[in-house]
Design a protein that fits this description.
The chain has two domains: 73 residues; 55 residues, no CATH class. Helices cover 47% and strands 16% of the residues. The chain contains five helices and six strands. Strand 3 and strand 4 form a beta hairpin.
């Protein structure tokens, strides 16, 4: 992660007629970033968190534009969580496609987790992923 202390916030923009009409924009190391919100309060809170991070001397990630602390939280997702979210996002796909994704992940996750301290039993991981990703499926 490359960081910069060159941070400049902009005023919150209001864009009428949008689902997320409040836009927070800022610049990090010459690159523009933005995030949209449903309410002004959410936009103000997010903008305040950016300014607070800058005031306490945090660096900003030059790829995402986010302060180091927010970027760490954003990236701190387990592979299992990522797999479950990915599979949930595939729900609009055809049933056979979803099953193929789930079956692939069911066999990949135990391989990825095998060298981790306190790793769960591979069958337990498979049952958990099936339960979480297949509507109506209940683990044994």
């Amino acid at each position: 992660m490359t960081t910069s202390f060159d941070f400049h916030p902009w005023r919150i923009q209001t864009r009428a007629g949008r689902k997320t009409p409040y836009r927070v924009r800022w610049v990090v190391a010459g690159w523009q970033f933005g995030n949209s919100f449903v309410t002004m309060a959410l936009a103000e809170s997010f903008r305040a968190s950016l300014i607070t991070a800058a005031r306490i001397g945090e660096g900003f990630d030059t790829d995402s534009g986010l302060p180091e602390s927010i970027e760490r939280k954003r990236r701190n997702v387990s592979f299992y969580q990522h797999a479950a979210e990915f599979t949930a996002a595939a729900r609009p796909a055809a049933a056979k496609t979803r099953v193929s994704i789930i079956e692939a992940l069911i066999w990949v996750i135990p391989v990825i987790a095998r060298d981790l301290a306190g790793e769960p039993d591979p069958d337990t991981l498979r049952r958990a992923l099936k339960k979480e990703t297949q509507p109506g499926h209940h683990a044994d």
